[in-house]
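Provenance

Sequences were taken from public entries as deposited. Structures were produced by running a predictor on each sequence independently, with no templates supplied. The record for Large ribosomal subunit protein uL29 from Phytoactinopolyspora alkaliphila is shown for reference.
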Amino acid sequence: MAIGSKNLDAESLREKSDADLVEELGKAKESLFNLRFQAATGQLESHGRLKAVRRDIARIYTIMRERELGIIPVVASASDDAAKGDAA
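Predicted structure for Large ribosomal subunit protein uL29:
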């Protein structure tokens, strides 16, 4: 597998809803901020982790852009399915 988090490969990201992707993106950006802060203060032990988190962020943005362009279908979240069931 490529460098990055275990649960953030392209296949698992494509199965997530838009809201889940936004949440994962927020987590990854926060992690990147913390890693950059550690690097600036000399406390970072694994510099490869910076590269991995940046790739995770890029992967999330790619999936979001694919959905925006209609290249891949949008996965409905569980809350969207429940709302449709209530409306019917």
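The helical segments are 10-14, 18-41, 48-69, 78-87.
The chain is about 70% helix and 0% strand.
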